[in-house]
Specification:
The protein is an alpha+beta fold. Helices cover 25% and strands 27% of the residues.
């Protein structure tokens, strides 16, 4: 593969770096059905770049909270438990209005997801906030419908990916979550922070991951016609890479 051209994509968000490199096969009218299927498998992944799924998109947004994001689970007590999704939305809008007034209308980044199907089948809200914007005590004061649990967004055992996949687990069904609703929402300011990916061509399919990182993962798919490699890592907080 010394003369092969690899199509490369790199995405950066906060301390997160994601990269993929693809050796794309060419489809031919002379391909057998098996050859066509094998080539399409590589082509499907090679076009995914680093932001294909909802989990990929959420991972990039979570990374912009850096090392100071907190994940809050906002639950309802019996007195305040809404009857349906629309009721949860009304409560959430009122809560977000209180948060905005608390910050004297200064903008802040946020992510939230409404869930109700799993666990004990009670409505609850997941919210991501930056520690410098809201402390856990402030969130508990502003949420007046029940209990509040908190934990760090970033963990060494799963990076931002762990939470991104967790918040995408509950799909719409038309009963609990209306069909067509996204599993999560975020502030416009947070989406605007996600920069376009870098794209280039290279003679090598090697993805370099530095040694001084707090989390990393690799993966690959390859066959006789092509290959798709990907890797991602999170720079350590005190790393010289930052």
């Amino acid at each position: 593969m010394s003369d092969a051209i690899w199509y490369c994509t790199r995405q950066r968000a906060g301390p997160l770096v994601k990269e993929c490199r693809a050796l794309r096969p060419r489809l031919s009218a002379e391909d057998t059905r098996e050859d066509h299927r094998a080539k399409q498998e590589i082509l499907r992944y090679s076009h995914s770049a680093v932001c294909r799924s909802q989990a990929d998109r959420l991972e990039l947004r979570l990374a912009h909270f850096g090392y100071e994001g907190s994940h809050y689970t906002l639950t309802f007590d019996d007195e305040h438990l809404p009857k349906d999704f629309a009721g949860v939305r009304r409560v959430l809008r009122a809560y977000q209005a209180r948060c905005k007034r608390w910050r004297h209308d200064e903008p802040y980044d946020w992510i939230y997801a409404i869930e109700g199907k799993h666990g004990d089948h009670r409505w609850h809200v997941h919210q991501i906030l930056r520690d410098s914007d809201f402390s856990p005590a402030e969130v508990r004061y502003l949420w007046r419908q029940g209990e509040v649990d908190d934990e760090p967004v970033l963990r060494k055992e799963g990076g931002y990916r762990r939470l991104a996949e967790y918040l995408n687990k509950e799909s719409s069904d038309g009963f609990w979550i209306p069909i067509g609703r996204h599993p999560w929402s975020c502030s416009r300011s947070l989406s605007q922070r996600v920069s376009p990916p870098e794209r280039w061509r290279d003679e090598s399919g090697v993805i370099e991951i530095p040694g001084d990182v707090m989390w990393a993962r690799r993966g690959q798919r390859e066959n006789d016609f092509g290959a798709y490699y990907y890797g991602s890592y999170i720079k350590a907080k005190n790393s010289s890479l930052i």
